Amino acid sequence: MSDASNNSDSDEQKDRVNKRSSTSGSATGPPNKTSKSWYQQPFNNNWLQEPELKDWIEADSKDKYIVRCKVCDCSLSNINKSSLLTYKMTQKHVKNFELKQQMTNIKTFFTTTKPPSLREQVAKAELLLVAFMAEHNIPFSQADHLVEVMKKMFPDSNVAKYIQMKRTKSSYVMQDGIAREEKEDITKICQNNKFSLIIDESTDISITQILAVVVRYYDEKKCQVVDVFLIVLRLKIQLQKDCIIR
């Protein structure tokens, strides 16, 4: 009997030791591993203001974590700005971007430009009329009669109806309008190109000494050397000093 009781006591002690060891092991052992949550980059509207990105990216209407590439017609998920710049330099994207630049947008065939207003059409007609008279050496005094004839020739034209061009206005449009703009254009060309001056002195019907200045330069648009009239200078002769001054 004593041996049986001793065996039962030893068994109970072993069970207690095993329970303690299991309890202490679970308390001091390594913690359970938990799944790590990764940060997802949503579409940033500020990217649409970036010069390197705004021309080829757009937001996805269904998923805020997707960036659409308009050039490659593909979706880029969970991508940040630096990754977008890296994708921009890929061979696929560069090739598709070059092809898109060469293609003509079909919308350009259906867009219509706003027609000019009647006031703009009248102003254009007056400029063309003055330029025609100056090109063909027609006196501006003829504008008084020419405009009236044009109104009778084209009674159904609103442009001809509202043209107001007499000799005084013709002279003003030529001197302070067309001539001034042409002079400024020639001056800008001479500032950036080599040129030479051709001058000719003469006397007009009012016995006034004038000096005509012509500029000779190479015209890149026409690919040839051209002579362009620049200005006429009125001179006063001072006999006492034997010199010419403006």
Summarize the structure.
This protein has 246 residues and is α+β, with helices and mostly antiparallel strands. Helices cover 43% and strands 20% of the residues.
Task: Tell me what you see in this structure.
The protein has 246 residues and is of the alpha+beta class. It has three domains: 45-102, no CATH class; 116-192, no CATH class; 194-246, no CATH class. Helices cover 43% and strands 20% of the residues. The chain contains seven helices and seven strands. It has helices spanning 2-28, 81-88, 91-102, 118-135, 143-153, 158-162, 167-192, and strands at 57-59, 66-69, 74-77, 195-203, 209-219, 224-238, 243-245. The strands form two sheets. Strands 4-5-6-7 form a four-stranded antiparallel β-sheet, with helices on one face. The protein has a three-stranded antiparallel β-sheet with strand order 1-2-3, with no helix packed on it. Helix 4 packs across helix 7. It starts with a helix and ends with a strand.
